[in-house]
Amino acid sequence: MCLVASKQGWPHYRLVIVVEGSALKSRFEGMLLAACGHDVDGSILPLTFGIIPSESNES
């Protein structure tokens, strides 16, 4: 899956990619991971995202 904004903005990305994780405390109880980049205008464009199980001894 490729988001249209990411596809069109790819030629204008800066060379810095930010990866962020955030805990989900709803029924999903996992971690939301996202990777984003900035373009030359300073706008934030998403590259990818995913939900993974929370950190535990089992995982």
Please explain how this structure is put together.
- The protein has 59 residues and is mostly beta strands.
- It has one helix at residues 4-9, and strands spanning 13-23, 30-39, 44-53.
- Strands 1-2-3 form a 3-stranded antiparallel sheet.
- The chain is elongated.
Order of helices and strands: HEEE
> How large is the radius of gyration?
14 Å
Number of helices: 1
Shape: elongated
Percent range of helical residues: 10-25%
The neighbouring-strand order within the major sheet is: 1-2-3
Structural topology:
Blueprint: H1 4-9, E1 13-23, E2 30-39, E3 44-53
Antiparallel strand pairs: 1-2, 2-3
Quick summary of this structure?
The chain is mainly β and 59 residues long. It is built from 1 helix and 3 strands, in the order αβββ.
Observed structural traits:
3-stranded antiparallel β-sheet, 10% helix, 3 strands, single chain, mainly beta, 59 residues, 1 helix
